[in-house]
Amino acid sequence: MSREGGFRAVWPWLLFAWLALVIWAAFLWAPAAANFKGQSSRIVFFHVPMAWVATVAFLGSCIASIRYLRRRNMEDDIRAEAANSLGLTFAVLATVTGSIFAKIMWGSYWNWDPRETSITFLLLIYAAYFALRAAIPDPERRATMAAVYSVLAFVTVPFLVFVVPRIYWSLHPDTFINTQGKIKMDSRMFQVFMASLAGFSVFAGWLYSIEVRLERIRRRRQQEELL
Amino acid sequence: MWRFLAEAGAVFVKDLRTEFRTRVALNALGLFAVTTLAAVSYTIGPYRIAEADRPFLLSALLWIVIFFASMAGLDRSFVKEEDTQTAPLLRLSASPLVVWAGKLAFNLALLAVLMAILVPLYGMLMGFRPVSLWGFAGILAAGGYTLAVTTTMVAAIIARAMTRGALFSVLSLPLLLPLLIFVIQGTRAAAEGSPEGVMEALRAVISLGGIMTILSVVLFPAVWHE
Q1: Residue of A nearest to B226 (CA)
Q2: Is the minimum CB–CB distance between B223 and chain A shorter than 8 Å?
Q3: Which residue does chain B place closest to A139, by CA atoms?
Q4: What residues contact residue B203 under an 8 Å CB cut-off, 6+ apart?
Q5: Residue range B32-46, pLDDT digits in tens
Q6: Do B157 and A149 count as a contact with CB atoms less than 8 A apart?
Q7: Would B103 disulfide with which of A110, B77, B130, B165, CB 3.0-4.6 Å?
């Protein structure tokens, strides 16, 4: 086995070990933050990385869509679709983890807090992307329309993530990137948080590469069936 | 520049003439708005809302009626071209930007007519009287423009798809939800007479409208020529 092939076989196990370590550290090594009910603050190690991965995936889809519109290469359409599918999955996970936190802290799974409202809107916007794809049978037209919609959809992300929560009063704890630009976190919490962010980012990148390869196979099979 | 405006004006006038022949979009928008307003007025009425809640709830209801009514007719400009198979001829005779500008002007005119009928009627039936009339007019103008520019682009996209009617609402409404939040906030501030609140909302609406305009100018040729 070549050196590269050996690394390819080993790295998913390294990632698995890394994420297992993050989960252990999140529950047993990092302290729980003050001013939060019970152990609820520990959800930050999972909830924020989910939201981060979703936002990066939507940005990735926007970039792939722009590349498709410039080069008309179907590979970019595959990447945009895979990134949106990953972004939607992680946005659902961020919503679920946020809801668990809301139940513990505020007594209800859903309060229509500005941040909950923003993520619901994002879910609806990106779910509509897949509704659009399903409604256009011609592959090239589908790719173009979906790319244009993906770019339009991404424009709403900064408004939903940064503007809406600042217009309405929110129950949501101060965000990691706050208006003072300061990190308000215990050093051990910060180490676990960054380890989790890195681990989930690599995990998402792995899922993305699998989804891209699967989509390539699906499209090749569709073409073969047509011939 | 003058040539561009003249050509876009010609597309606008053509759309206006064909619309007055059938009145499909005007009837759909107007009837949907009046029916929804009648339903809201009958079920809620002007006096069932507590005084403290009136600015926010009446602002929210007004914009919900405008948004849902606009879903009933703002896709017509592009869908009509595909249904009547006139789109290929339009592609040959005008540049994409001219078509976009003409269709946007048509949608703006439709929304202006809708608002001119709906807003005074809503004020009478629901007892909605904003303290800052200029602020309210600014929010209506900026919100109406952003609504028109976004729906024009979505209409161009869905005109090339199947199940167009349902798809227009499915694609437009989520994209318009941030706008809905800003215009409700701005209308509430105008109703309460808070110029700071109106300005804050106006900044957000104008930014969104500006970005959507720039993106539409850049992306429309790709949609139109596909």
Answers
A1: A141
A2: yes
A3: B226
A4: none
A5: 888 888 888 888 877
A6: yes
A7: B77
Q: List CB contacts (< 8 A) between B215 and chain A.
A: 151-152, 155
Q: Which of B69, B73, B72 is nearest to B119 (CA)?
A: B69
Residue B211 in this model has a pLDDT that exceeds 90? yes
Among A144, A148, A155, the strongest candidate for a mutation testing the B interface, having the largest count of B CBs within 10 A, is A148
Q: Is the dihedral of CA A61, A63, A64, A69 positive or negative?
A: positive
Q: What count of residues does chain B have?
A: 226
CA distance B203 to chain A (A): 11
Q: What is the pTM of this model?
A: 0.88
Question: What is the rounded radius of gyration, in angstroms, for the C-alpha atoms of chain A?
Answer: 20
- With a CB-CB cutoff of 8 Å, which residues 137-196 of chain B face chain A? 150, 153-154, 157-158, 160-163, 167, 170-171, 173-175, 177-178, 181-182, 185
How near does any CA of chain B get to the CA of A100, in Å?
25
What residue spans define the domains of chain B?
2-224
Q: CA-CA distance, A14 to B27, in Å (whole number)? A: 64
Spell out which residues of chain A touch residue B170, defining contact as CB-CB under 8 Å: 128, 131-132
Report the chain A residue with the minimal C-alpha distance to residue B205: A159
Place of tokens 């003050």: A34
Q: What is the pLDDT of residue A177?
A: 46
Structure tokens at B216: 């539409």
Q: Residue window 69-88, chain A: list those with CB within 8 Å of chain B.
A: 69
Q: What end-to-end distance do the CA atoms of chain B give, in Å?
A: 26
The pLDDT tens digits of the residues spanning B157-181 come to 998 887 777 888 889 888 998 899 8
Residues A32 and A30: their CA atoms lie apart, in Å, by 7
Tokens of A1: 């086995």
Of B157, B200, B215, which has the smallest distance from its Cβ to A167's Cβ? B200
Phi-psi region of A183 (alpha: psi -120 to 50; beta: other; left: phi over 0): beta
Full set of structural domains in chain A with CATH? 3-226 (1.20.120)
User: B58 exposed, middle or buried (CB, 10 Å; 0-12, 13-18, 19+)?
Assistant: buried
Say if residue B48 is exposed, middle or buried (CB neighbours under 10 Å; 0-12, 13-18, 19+): exposed
Q: Both tokens of residue A28? A: 């047993």
Instruction: Tell me how far apart the alpha carbons of residues B203 and B176 are, in angstroms, rounded to a whole number.
Output: 16
Q: How far apart are CA A222 and CA A108, in angstroms?
A: 46
